[in-house]
Design a protein that fits this description.
Elements: H1 2-10, H2 22-38, H3 44-74, H4 87-119, E1 122-124, H5 132-146, E2 153-155, E3 169-176, E4 183-190, E5 198-200, E6 207-208, E7 211-212, E8 215-219, H6 220-225, E9 236-247, H7 261-274, E10 278-284, H8 289-299, E11 306-309, H9 361-366, E12 370-374, H10 380-392, E13 396-403, H11 411-421, E14 425-430, H12 438-450, E15 454-456, E16 463-464, E17 467-475, E18 478-486, E19 498-505, H13 508-522, E20 534-536, H14 540-556, E21 562-567, H15 573-584, E22 588-593, E23 610-615, E24 620-621, E25 625-628, E26 635-639, H16 645-649, E27 651-657, H17 661-675, E28 681-684, E29 690-692, H18 704-715
Length: 716
């Protein structure tokens, strides 16, 4: 044992060989998403959905991560990542990894998904596939609906190369003047958003080569391409090609210089659409050298910025096909169940016999802490009901809440407005910097302000990511505080597809901690300690490290050491080093990490006691659970924070201990179910690759998400 300790102490845990690259790890996550589109075990329309998710994920990756790397190269930033790579090296490896992945999804769509959809009566057609009546319909559609909104833009000495909006789909057109033979270049933007991406035929044309069909449509860009003569009368169309543009969309905001944060965000959003540099150009393989070079020169791009596509571009638009009424091609429907303790409330009881007289959400919480697990348990019947009931309860004096992301028709927003109209003190922290939800949050911030809600935008220099609600209620001459502390956003739509946890409690210490935290968020406060909560950027990092080191001490003293942590991403080098040290001390560490993992497991003398799995399935794994064995006196936490520098140092986060033994046991059971998954789980290898688990004769299929759905239904 002394020799092992001596050898461990000689290992430099800062060595880049012990860390995976963040960006390349994310690409491996998106590869696992792509696998769901490729996997024939996945229902057909769900495969289409995963292809769309893969493409949408890539769009955001280029808009943010690739854009940042390109800026670092331009600025000649020479700092290396913990894994030892420069920005340019990362860009080069991203390009090498991505091109075959992009080709794979295109091949899957064109050769598998589209033909299989056709067998089910769903036809995503090309213009050349159409019969006479269908072409006639599209010609009329073009003349009446499409032509009036198109604006061809010439490129010549009098017309500079046009600025392309982010994620825009376009046609590059080369025309020839018959009078002098001169060729010219023009761009036509495909008005996706103004018009549907896929133009659907009316029911009377739902026949394809004599076969009846449920849905048939053609990409909008093909409708335009086959009617270009109307846009360039008197000219000869020499060639045309579809292309797609992705721009830098990362907001650059100097909060300390912004007098009006709302106005500053709006200005930055305008820049995002048109002002950021182009970071990716998608073009068809059939494109001519002339058009290719014209586009690259006009947008100042290199060959590595260009992605050749063999088929449909903008695959995120495939989401529109999911509305096709073919339930047998989708996952079996699942309705979230009402948590058992809430079924005695009048709003949710199945019969009057189940109603407990005088009960309400607050009396239920007073009975003991309540854990809710979405989407297995209903968000509407728990969190949404908690806020809505509080808004209309005459005994409630105040509601305070953070809003990071929410839906366009959110009942939560309506409840806060109702609460303000009912004369309650209502404070809402709206995070305007929630990436890609800024515009929506601005809209809701204004609506809340107009209703009399006290709206604040957080702390300068920090993004408020915590998911918390505080309700202050007067009961028998006393003030009581009720809280919700969660892992996910207050969004009823994503609560149906993201797995998240929330704790409803009236523990005094938690109520007091949330009071202090809201004072920090809305006023002038330098709170340095909290009774129970682990709060970033104040106490969370130090407490997590202390909890890991405590397990290491137990192990060194001959006691069992075990850590199980579930999160979205593990990136922070200090946390990773501390986990390595715990592994060296003999602590068993099980990590369930959906996305990025920069920790390298399975290295002798460093991380042989660490295993990492990722689960990618029907629902997006979003909950964070941290379990520490603590010499057989387990401590369990849930909260909003991943183990990333941004969560620990640059965001306001809250992680709560779970003090109810029954709830702690329930969470440990969930973790065990995840670790035993052999259907959606992938094991991270020491070389950075992932291997998907598969059932065997000795080990029948165990899908964690399926098991949790079945467990929830059993309670109903």
């Amino acid at each position: 044992m002394p020799r092992a300790k001596e050898a461990a102490s000689e290992i430099d845990l800062n060595n880049p060989q012990y860390y995976f690259n963040r960006e390349l790890s994310w690409l491996e996550f998106n590869r696992r998403v792509l696998h769901e589109a490729l996997d024939p075990r996945t229902p057909l329309l769900e495969r289409v959905k995963f292809a769309a998710i893969f493409a949408s994920n890539l769009d955001e990756f280029f808009m943010v991560r690739v854009a940042v790397l390109k800026e670092q190269v331009i600025a000649e930033v020479n700092e290396r990542t913990p894994d030892g790579r420069t920005a340019q090296q990362q860009l080069d490896e991203i390009s090498q990894l991505l091109h075959p992945m992009v080709a794979q999804v295109q091949q899957c769509l064109e050769q598998e998904l589209i033909p299989q959809l056709a067998e089910e009566g769903v036809y995503l057609l090309h213009y050349t596939d159409l019969d006479k009546d269908q072409r006639l319909y599209l010609q009329r559609f073009f003349e009446e609906r499409v032509f009036p909104v198109l604006t061809p833009l010439a490129v010549d000495p009098a017309h500079p190369f046009p600025v392309m909006s982010n994620l825009s789909l376009n046609l590059a057109v080369v025309v020839k003047d018959p009078s002098n033979g001169q060729e010219s270049f023009a761009r036509v933007k495909v008005p996706v958003g103004v018009l549907p991406r896929f133009i659907q035929f009316p029911s009377e044309l739902h026949l394809h080569r004599g076969k009846p069909c449920i849905w048939a449509g053609v990409p909008l860009e093909e409708v335009i391409a086959h009617n270009l003569e109307a846009l360039f009368p008197g000219m000869t169309i020499q060639e045309h090609h579809v292309f797609r543009v992705t721009r830098d969309a990362d907001l650059e905001l100097r909060e300390d210089e912004a007098e009006d944060l709302l106005l500053a965000i709006q200005q930055e959003l305008r820049k995002r659409r048109f002002g950021g540099s182009v970071v990716r150009l998608q073009i068809p393989e059939s494109i001519s050298d002339f058009v290719r070079q014209t586009l690259m020169k006009g947008m100042h791009l290199t060959e590595k910025d260009v992605y050749m596509m063999n088929g449909t571009m903008g695959l995120r638009d495939l989401f529109s096909l999911l509305g096709v009424p073919l339930p047998h091609l989708k996952d079996p429907p699942f309705t979230p169940v009402i948590p058992p303790r809430l079924r005695k409330l009048p709003a949710f009881a199945e019969s009057e016999l189940e109603v407990e007289e005088g009960s309400n959400i607050f009396s239920i919480i007073r009975e003991g802490d309540l854990l809710v697990h979405h989407p297995y348990e209903s968000f509407t019947a728990s969190v949404e009901h908690f806020v809505t009931y509080a808004a209309n309860d005459p005994d409630v004096l105040a509601i305070k809440m953070t809003l990071y992301r929410t839906s366009g028709d959110s009942p939560i927003i309506k409840a806060l407005i109702a609460a303000a109209e009912n004369g309650k003190q209502v404070a809402a922290l709206v995070e305007l910097k929630a990436r890609f939800d800024e515009e929506s949050n601005i809209t809701w911030a204004r609506e809340l302000e107009n209703a009399g809600v006290h709206v604040v935008y957080g702390v300068i220099g920090l993004k408020t990511h915590t998911k918390i609600v505080l309700v202050v209620r007067q009961e028998n001459e006393r003030i009581h505080r009720y809280v919700h502390i969660g892992t996910g956003n207050y969004n009823p739509k994503t609560a149906k597809v993201y797995t998240d946890l929330g704790l409803l409690s009236c523990r005094e210490a938690l109520g007091a901690d949330l009071t202090d935290l809201f004072n920090f968020l809305t006023g002038f406060s330098k709170q340095k300690s909290y009774r129970k909560l682990l709060v970033a950027p104040v106490t969370l990092r130090d407490r997590i490290i202390a909890l890991i080191r405590r397990e290491a001490e137990h192990s060194k003293n001959g006691k069992p050491g075990h850590i199980i942590a579930k999160m979205n991403a593990l990136v922070d080098p200090q946390i990773i080093r501390t986990l390595y040290e715990a592994s060296q001390a003999g602590v068993q560490i099980d990590l369930i990490i959906r996305g990025i993992c920069c920790l390298r497991p399975g290295i002798a003398g460093v991380s042989e006691n660490i295993r990492v799995i990722s689960i990618v399935g029907r629902y997006l794994e979003h909950s964070r659970i941290f379990w520490f064995q603590n010499n057989r006196k387990p401590e369990v936490f849930i909260g909003s924070a991943d183990w990333m520098p941004r969560n620990l140092d640059r965001r306001v986060e809250a992680v709560t201990p779970i003090e109810d033994p029954e709830i702690a046991t329930k969470l440990k059971t969930c973790l065990d179910i995840f670790l035993a998954d052999n259907r959606q789980a992938w094991d991270l290898q020491s070389d950075g690759s992932y291997i998907q688990r598969h059932p065997t004769e000795d080990s029948p299929e165990r899908s964690a998400q399926t098991i949790l759905m079945e467990m929830a239904q059993q309670t109903a």
